[in-house]
Amino acid sequence: MAITGAADLLATWEAGLAEAPAGRALLLHRTARPDLDARALPVLPVGAREADLFTLRRALFGERMQVRLECGACGEDMEFDLDAGEFARTLGGPDESVVRMGEGGREETTVVRVAEGGWDVEFRLPGVADLTAVARAADPRGALIARCLVSAVRDGTAVGADELPAPVQRRIAEAVEAADPGADVTLNVACPECGQATRAELDIASYLWTELDAWARDVLLDVHLLATAYGWSEPEILALSPLRRRYYLELCADV
């Protein structure tokens, strides 16, 4: 992945200010995967997106991620470090053993298969667009199954999503989780004070956006100070390396 320049990152940040969290996550994913058609990003398996965002975070801000979490048992404020590079490597998107389907032999849609007890079911791994579409449904799991079901056959007869019994639905959920483990990154942290474990979801898109927002505001302050001191334009200042910008800022402070 090519590291995006400061001007492009600022453009991503500016566009994201008017977006909801889902829109910001998509903008970050576009930054992480400029090699892919933007229309393909929302349908990629969720775990693939998470791995891409961890890779982007590592490229922009380094390996070390500082996380704060309140103990669910005693309320103690816990701070610890995570390794963005390790997450990017271990998530790695969907299991390569699953079937991949697509027109003309292209690997576009990742499908898991559940075959047991007379049932033969093929189910497409959900993408971000699928999860967004069913988020407000009365029965999100049922709506997701209906949306992502490729085929369902029982004893040789095709059936619809509404005819899948609860045990088969559970097997589908288990198969999807096994095929795309990176879709749900959950931390399980033991409190150093009380010893109890606290579980919490790590939302890398939200975490990365918070970092990008802080970075962008710092950079714009740098631009303001250097433009005031030297009369340079924003493109000229952003073309400087971070090290040279910092050096010029130090010179300004010494004057």
TrEMBL record:
Q: Name the InterPro entries for this protein.
A: Baseplate_phage_T4-like
Top-rank lineage group of the source organism: Bacteria
| One Pfam family this sequence matches | T4_baseplate
State what protein this is by name: Phage baseplate protein
**Source organism of the structure:** Streptomyces bluensis
